[in-house]
Specification:
This protein is of the alpha/beta class. The longest helix is centred in the first third of the chain and has 21 residues.
């Protein structure tokens, strides 16, 4: 299933018309919100910790260039080889070259949104390399030929009935069942076979510690640990914004990450990778590589307001509380990162010309900002993005594709409107004309009345009504007295 951000509106319309999607997401979002509420019962404690996490991320971003250099230095000292990629194409080429270097064919991959972002699976598949997802949710969507619909729970859009049928159709000699434990065991059996023979293991990174050159990986299923230790080569891929300054920065961030994401006080596994296997160790990879990906992040970093976008720790809480995401799901957005965070991240990665509808797909209710563990001002950034989309002054455009939604006809309409508003006589004439022709207004087709009841002007303008009651100046009839 292929979706595109450029087709957001028809995709959203289709999702709204799909009762299964509506039901699946409604139940899943209610469950996740209640789980989060259960582990964050004290608002005062949450906001205090939220402030700490926000300050940590802001400080790390303020020193980002220096911290990235420190991370590289300490990783190299630990035996971790570091690679830099400005674009998805560069990142894919680096990873593919590493696989070729080790004559790798079978690749296992732990959960990694950055690998989704760069389209790694499709890239490797086109070159004859088998890359299997080992996170259960990722495995399900891969088997279905889909992409994740949520950054934490990739297959959240599917119910047990759909997954049972998928396994029955795609996995040989698998009877149909809707029992969740049985389905999980079926998936595990498939993955275990791949772990035994994998040449390369690929994972994401939740936090990269500059102080120690340590890669931290947060997970629940153990697939990240197996992917990073069982194969002889481990490749970690992450965005440049994941670096933190100190190891002591990790505990507060981890505390809010797990509680915000899955409603857990702590996840089952927390992996700290500081280098390849040493001579006196019994397990672990022979080589560890770190691929640091830019892909539009430096564009966001260059603007002080947009820089807050890079504070995100990918918990997904904003999606779980968003009234838009809850109703249309993740695939409607047509981007790797859906929901509120996707609306402010994707324009930097894909260009504003390809994501025009995303910043406007929000009620600006503020629920996303309220629950964000690092306090990203998403509604404010969305409004700034809307301005950039329609920015007329090229000197004020800071993003790639800014001004792409600007229409000459719309700009002219607003100029005329402004002119009328500063010339009272013309304004009065215009409003009187609209009042006289009010029956024709509903016939005018516009984006406004495609989803709303068309407003019908009153038969008399306010000025006329006031004039009738003697509330206007006789010499200046447009003035109220």
């Amino acid at each position: 299933m292929h979706t595109s951000a450029q087709q957001f509106k028809p995709q959203a319309h289709d999702a709204l018309a799909n009762p299964v999607i509506r039901k699946n997401f409604r139940g899943a979002m209610d469950f996740l919100r209640n789980k989060r509420k259960g582990v964050i019962p004290d608002d005062a404690e949450f906001h205090a910790l939220q402030k700490v996490c926000e300050q940590i991320k802001q400080q790390c971003l303020a020193e980002l260039p220096e911290l990235l250099e420190q991370l590289e230095k300490n990783c190299l000292a630990n035996g971790i080889q570091v690679h830099w990629a400005e674009t998805p194409a560069e990142a894919n080429a680096i990873i593919n070259a590493l696989i070729d270097k080790h004559s790798g064919v079978d690749v296992v991959k732990g959960k990694s949104m950055v690998s989704e972002e760069i389209g790694l699976n499709d890239y490797l598949d086109a070159r004859g390399k088998s890359c299997i997802e080992t996170d259960m949710g990722e495995y399900i969507v891969q088997l279905a030929g889909e992409h994740p619909s949520h950054i934490i729970m990739p297959a959240i859009h599917k119910n047990a009935q759909e997954i049972g049928q998928l396994f029955h159709d795609k996995i040989e000699d698998t009877p149909f069942t809707t029992d969740v434990d049985t389905l999980i065991n079926i998936g595990r059996q498939q993955m275990r076979k791949r772990f035994e023979h994998a040449h390369i293991g690929i994972t994401g990174v939740n936090f990269a510690v500059a102080e120690t050159g340590t890669l931290c990986l947060v997970e629940n299923e153990g697939n990240g640990r197996l992917s990073s230790t069982a194969p002889p080569v481990h490749i970690a891929v992450t965005g440049i914004e994941k670096v933190v300054k100190y190891l002591a920065d990790v505990p507060p961030l981890l505390s809010l990450l797990t509680r915000s994401a899955t409603g857990q006080v702590i996840t089952t596994y927390f992996n700290m990778i500081s280098g390849p296997r040493k001579s006196d160790e019994k397990d672990g990879p022979e080589e560890v590589h770190l691929v640091l990906v830019d892909n539009g992040r430096t564009q966001a970093y260059a603007d002080e307001q947009f820089r807050a976008t890079l504070q995100c720790i990918r918990c997904g809480a904003c999606m779980n509380h968003c009234p838009v995401y809850t109703r249309i799901g993740g695939h409607a957005y047509g981007t790797v990162y859906p929901g509120p965070i996707g609306k402010i991240v994707s324009p930097h990665m894909l260009g504003m010309e390809n994501t025009q509808d995303l910043p406007t797909a929000s009620s600006l209710c503020g629920a996303c900002e309220e629950v964000c563990p690092v306090n990203i001002p998403i509604p404010t950034i969305l409004q700034r993005l809307r301005t950039q989309l329609n920015q007329g002054n090229a000197d004020k455009r800071t993003l790639r594709g800014a001004g792409s939604a600007r229409k000459a006809s719309e700009a002219m309409i607003w100029k005329v409107w402004r002119y009328l508003c500063v010339h009272p006589r013309l304004y009065r004439l215009a409003t009187q004309s609209v009042a006289r022709l009010r029956k024709l207004v509903p016939l005018v087709k516009s984006p406004w009345n495609q989803g709303r009841v068309s407003p019908k002007p009153a038969p008399k303008t306010l000025n006329e009504l006031l004039h009738k009651k003697g509330k206007t100046n006789a010499n200046k009839p447009w003035m109220i007295v």
